[in-house]
Specification:
By secondary structure, the protein is mostly beta strands. The chain has a single domain, classed as Jelly Rolls (Sandwich). It contains no helices and 11 strands. The strands form 3 sheets. The chain has a 5-stranded antiparallel sheet with strand order 2-3-11-5-9, with no helix packed on it. Strands 6, 7, 8 and 10 form a 4-stranded antiparallel sheet that branches. The N and C termini lie far apart (38 Å). The model has no long low-confidence stretch (mean pLDDT 91).
Length: 121
């Protein structure tokens, strides 16, 4: 189990999207979490996961306001953001911290999680 550090592309580096940020965690294996990030100034967020899930692979998008107690975030329909196949979801909550958590998989599980966030400014 490892904590993976994301790559963050800051505002102004996204080709005219000055009020946005792109966060990417790569090489997420079974049992890994992403290092938590805080981008609460960007309340409009979209989560995407790609890669090899392997047998039983699953990843949650989690949020926390204290950096210790984590909860699975939800989409606008109120469903937990837990993916067992590649996909994309809008994120309802805007917690202080956010991270991916790979909760299941096998030796072939290798995921990339990307969160695009923007500010209404």
């Amino acid at each position: 189990m490892a904590e993976r550090t994301p790559t963050v592309i800051q505002p102004g580096s996204l080709g005219g999207l000055e009020h946005s940020v792109l966060m990417t965690w790569t090489g997420l294996l079974n049992g890994d979490t992403g290092a938590p990030l805080t981008f609460h100034d960007y309340p409009d967020r979209t989560f995407q996961v790609t890669g090899t899930f392997g047998t039983g692979g699953s990843v949650n998008l989690e949020g926390s306001n204290d950096g210790t107690n984590w909860a699975i975030l939800t989409d606008p329909q109120g469903n937990a953001i837990t993916k067992t196949a590649a996909g994309m979801e809008a994120v309802t909550e805007t917690p202080r911290y956010m991270r991916p958590n790979v909760t299941a998989g096998d030796g072939t599980t290798d995921l990339t999680v990307t969160v695009f966030a923007r500010s209404p400014r």
